[in-house]
Amino acid sequence: MAIYANATREPGNNAGNYLGGPWRIVWHTTETNTAQEAIALFRQHNSWPHFTLDENQVFQHVDTDQAARALENAPGGVQTNRWHAVQIELVAHAAQAKPPALLVRAARLARWLERTHGIPQLWPNGFPLPPLNGNDPGGHNRDANTWRTQGGHYGHCHVPENHHWDPGLIDITALMAPDPVLGDFPLPPPGIGYA
């Protein structure tokens, strides 16, 4: 079992066993103002992520050894939810900057996940794109072959068969910061794994 010790358990439904692929983290935004609103929507749509984070708390809905349900997955297409995708929902909006306290909490969780599941600190499909006039900028890299073959960090905007643009505006430096307790998980040299 992979349960984050700093999380409050708020159980949701999983999508079953993973089917393969390298481990990765997928970053979402809830597009709500509170975790409670987001959790109510997950319950209503049965679209549970592994984690929901706000500035004050981490909620874990699904053990990371099981698949979550927050991604679209077309029949006969590329595996999304069940392709070793650990899914994190930030209580935030894609078009807005993320609060520093939320990014600190997200970075700590990400460093734990990287260590637990061997997830590299890479963004194989590039960084999430910021909004254009407060809206989806378009042009997201959703390369299916990269998704199938490379682990690392992805935005919802990078996942094949999906049409959302979250996490949108996000401070990558803060998100990838070392955990102050566990220490640094070294980044690769410039140009490796970054778009």
Structure overview:
The longest helix is centred in the middle third of the chain and has 18 residues, at 100-117. The radius of gyration is 15 Å and the shape is globular. Residues 186-195 have low confidence and may be disordered. Helix content is 20%, strand content 12%. It has one domain: Peptidoglycan recognition protein-like (Lysozyme-like, 3-Layer(aba) Sandwich). The chain is of the alpha/beta class.
Features:
Amidase_domain; six-stranded mixed beta sheet; disordered C terminus; alpha/beta; N-acetylmuramoyl-L-alanine amidase activity; Amidase/PGRP_sf; 195 residues; Lysozyme-like; 6 strands; hydrolase; 4 helices
| Helix count from the secondary structure assignment | 4
**Alpha-beta classification:** alpha/beta
Radius of gyration: 15 Å
Whole-number tally of structural domains = 1
Helix content: 10-25%
Which blocks of ≥5 consecutive residues have pLDDT under 50?
Answer: 186-195
The CATH architecture: 3-Layer(aba) Sandwich
C-alpha end-to-end distance: 33 Å
CATH overall fold name = Lysozyme-like
Strand content: 5-15%
How many E strands? 6
Topology:
Blueprint (H helix, E strand, L loop, with lengths): L7 E2 L14 E6 L5 H11 L5 E3 L4 E3 L24 E6 L9 H18 L26 H6 L2 E4 L16 H4 L20
Describe this structure in a few short sentences.
It holds the Pfam family Amidase_2. One of its GO terms (biological process) is peptidoglycan catabolic process. The chain is an alpha/beta fold and 195 residues long.
